[in-house]
Amino acid sequence: MSTAVRTRTRDPRIALNAVRPHIRDYTYNVLESPGSVGVTIWEREIKLLMRDNVMVRDMAERILGQAVAYTLTAMERRDVHIGVGKTVDIGVHQLILDTPVHFALCDVYNGGKHHAPLIERRRDGLVGRTADVIRENGFAVDDELWAVDGADCSPCDDKVPDSH
Fold first, then answer.
1. 8 A C-beta contact, residue 145 and residue 87
2. What's the pLDDT tens digit per position in 7-42?
3. What is the DSSP annotation of 114-163?
């Protein structure tokens, strides 16, 4: 990662929508499923978050934005151990559950490697340090969402094969 000052902030919407051409058909084409026709991948994931987590749109967008920023940072900064708190993890799980989208994210940003969660949560301040790494990786950080779970992390193991 360059130590140069960034003049632009990375947009999670653009990063997520960029995987669209890489989404392959699995049991059916998710891009042609009811409610998905004509919407961006970002909008699809927002709709799924709102459907499954009874959130208002603003909160769904905040969580998804931070989940994309975390996921891409985890993929791009394998040299740093990071972890996500419970609140942002709702969005990370949304991305993972929409497997065609998740596989495309992994293909585009992580050389095909996937997710390998640990069972026990860490309580050593890793979530707060993760927000700093995400910021260093060029994304805006929603400090409120990271602070709410600052001491309770849902880590992934970046040392096992095929993990981010």
1. yes
2. 579 999 999 999 999 998 776 678 888 888 889 999
3. B--B-SSPB-SSHHHHHHHHHHHTTB---HHHHHTTTT-EEEB-TTSTTB
